[in-house]
Amino acid sequence: YNGAKYEAKILARFIDIPSVWKIDAVVPVPLHCKRIKKRGFNQSELIAKHLCENKGLKLDTSLLIRGVDTKQQARMTEAGRKRNVKGAFIADDRCRGASVLLLDDVCTTGATLSECAKELKKHGCEKVYAVTVCFVKPD
């Protein structure tokens, strides 16, 4: 990440949201507080902030938190990624009935997005849409 926060504004411009998606809030995939302290920022949150500014949407960083300081997933297998994020997120009941747009910077296997969506739905979220800036093409 090298502290390149300015790239978030540029990357947010490339995200297209279908007009049929009725979104109450944009929820960036949260980092654990230890990771934020080490890195200095949450890249997904920065991108979400600029996306919200561009599209006139509401950013809500409190609907979903990362309660477990998970390991970095860069070199994990798909199964390892699923195990790593299982139970790592905690949703707030205020999401009940809401339609949220979950935003992550990169999707490799979908394990993180899937776990976040499950937690939001478990707490009554009506719809969970997801967008990423990049994805890793499967082999």
Structural class: alpha/beta
State the end-to-end distance.
25 Å
Could you name the ranges where pLDDT drops below 50 across 5 or more consecutive residues?
A: none
The count of β-strands is 5
The overall average pLDDT, rounded, is 92
Describe the structure concisely.
By secondary structure, the protein is of the alpha/beta class.
Can you describe what's shown?
It is a single chain. With 139 residues, the chain is of the alpha/beta class. It is built from 5 helices and 5 strands. The protein has a 3-stranded parallel β-sheet, sandwiched between helices. Strands 2-3 form a two-stranded antiparallel sheet. Helix 5 (111-122) links the parallel strand 4 (99-107) and strand 5 (127-135). It is globular, with a radius of gyration of 14 Å.
Strand and helix map with partners:
Blueprint: H1 7-12, E1 25-28, H2 33-39, H3 43-55, E2 64-66, H4 78-85, E3 89-91, E4 99-107, H5 111-122, E5 127-135
Parallel strand pairs: 1-4, 4-5
Antiparallel strand pairs: 2-3
Q: Which descriptors apply to this entry?
A:
alpha/beta; three-stranded parallel beta sheet; 5 helices; globular
